[in-house]
Design a protein that fits this description.
Elements (H helix, E strand, L loop, with lengths): L51 E5 L13 E3 L1 H4 E4 L11 E7 L5 E12 L1 E10 L10 E6 L19 E9 L10 E7 L14 E3 L12 E9 L8 E7 L2 E9 L9 E9 L9 E12 L10
Antiparallel strand pairs: 1-15, 2-5, 3-4, 4-15, 5-14, 6-11, 6-15, 7-8, 7-14, 8-9, 9-10, 11-12, 12-13
Length: about 300
């Protein structure tokens, strides 16, 4: 698939070692219901909030091209399900089905213009009870110049004025964690560390206490990327599980040019036979919100 070239031939998320950084002092991030969703119970009308860039609840039962600039494996892997998160006000969710030897899953991709300095993405996710390890997952991208679809770069260190990306992914760490793996950021940027094979595979940012999602259960996941001021290592990325801040990593110099903006969201479940052994691997997504500020889980109507 031309649009999943970010995926690599080896599971290198943990090869280069953890790149942990302390939380910047005096800037504690919000948690729980202290975000945008609190003002929009049930997410009803949340797309009207000026901070919201994208809202997708899949209730239409169709893929809206005004919301998604690129859709992959629509016929083979993407479908709609009546299994929704308990907090959801809707009746439909997205189901991504990857079948080894037939397809690698699918994705929805959205490019935002002109881009932003900070991006939050909240999505509900459920791994099927028999889902195996996932190769690559939900990703935020900064790219200059922007393109309507995902571009390659696996094994390469991106230039500081051209691109950086980070995916919130479950990582198996060579099967040390049970499927689908422990949450970590799989990150490409101009200061990333080289892997043992001489190439540049994504570096991992994982919290000291690994968190492994339970299969067969819906979770509210949120990820955030904050660009750095040019010339300063004050960039940041963080993620939340059910409104609890779990991973927070600062001191990152994402870019060398202010022209490089955070400008894409990639809702993806990509599975290969590298670590995955199960024939069929299903992942559900629902109630996606992309914004420039903390969102938080759905609040009751």
């Amino acid at each position: 698939m031309r649009n999943l070239m970010l995926a690599v031939a080896i599971d290198a998320a943990l090869v280069t070692g953890f790149c942990l950084a302390a939380e910047p002092p005096g800037t504690r991030l919000p948690e729980g219901q202290g975000g945008i969703a609190a003002a929009w119970p049930g997410d009803a009308g949340i797309e009207k909030d000026p901070r919201v860039l994208l809202h997708e609840d899949f209730e239409s039962g169709a893929f809206d091209r005004t919301r998604w600039s690129e859709i992959s494996n629509k016929a083979e892997a993407l479908s709609f399900s009546e299994d929704v998160p308990p907090a959801s006000a809707g009746k439909k969710s997205l189901l991504v089905t990857a079948k080894l030897g037939e397809n690698t899953g699918g994705h929805l991709f959205r490019r935002f213009k002109p881009g932003t300095e900070k991006m939050h993405a909240r999505f509900y996710v459920k791994f099927a009870p028999d889902c195996d390890y996932v190769h690559h997952f939900v990703t935020i991208v900064a790219e200059n110049p922007p393109t309507p679809w995902p571009t390659g770069g696996a094994g390469l260190c991106p230039p500081g004025d051209k691109k950086f990306s980070t995916g919130l992914e479950p990582a198996g760490n060579y099967r040390r964690f049970p499927p689908p793996g422990a949450w970590n950021f799989y990150t490409y940027w101009w200061q990333m560390k080289r892997s043992r094979d001489g190439k540049y595979w994504g570096n991992s940012f994982m919290p000291p206490a690994p968190v492994v999602p339970e299969r067969g259960r819906w979770y509210a996941m949120e990820m955030m990327v904050q660009a750095n001021k040019v010339g300063q290592a004050d960039g940041r990325q963080a993620f939340w599980v059910d409104g609890k801040l779990v991973g927070d990593f600062g001191g990152i110099e994402w870019r060398t040019s202010a022209d490089l903006k955070i400008n894409a969201f990639w809702l993806m479940s990509y599975i290969t036979d590298l670590w995955t052994k199960n024939k069929t691997n299903r992942v559900g997504f629902d109630d996606v919100v992309v914004a420039t500020d903390y969102i938080g889980p759905i609040t009751k109507k």
